[in-house]
Amino acid sequence: LGYHAEIAPPEGDSICAYFALKFDTSISSYYCESYADELYKIDGVKWCHAISGETDMMVFVEVPNMNRLNEIRDQIQRFPELRHLMTHTVLTEFFNTTGNKFVK
Q1: What are the tens digits of pLDDT across the range 60-99?
Q2: Which of 10, 59, 68, 87 is most exposed, with the fewest beta carbons within 10 Å of its own?
Q3: How far apart are CA 4 and CA 74, in angstroms?
């Protein structure tokens, strides 16, 4: 029962994850816009959305290994106004209607 994560996927496969970001609540919409440009420059970041609710932004990454995932997480964690960052690693992709296949 439960689930497991393959820390070292088979060669050629990638690791995908979502980062949930929460900024200082008094000015979060400003930081979403200003950090979107910074996130765009990071190799491995595939998309970034400002969302409603407790979380301010969702960032999707596709990387070749856990080391790269941690590097990106560490880079984002240094954003000065960031209050919380949670990583959600993709375990299984059941379907993807965008035409982009991220998880093999």
Answers
A1: 999 999 999 999 999 999 998 899 999 999 999 888 887 6
A2: 10
A3: 24
- Cα dist. 36→12, 30, 53, 86 in Å? 29, 10, 18, 17
92 in Cβ contact with 103 (< 8 Å): yes
Segment holding 99, helix H or strand E: none
What domains lie within the chain, and their CATH numbers?
25-89 (3.30.70.920)
The distance from CA 84 to its chain's CA centroid, rounded to whole angstroms, is 13
pTM of the model: 0.79
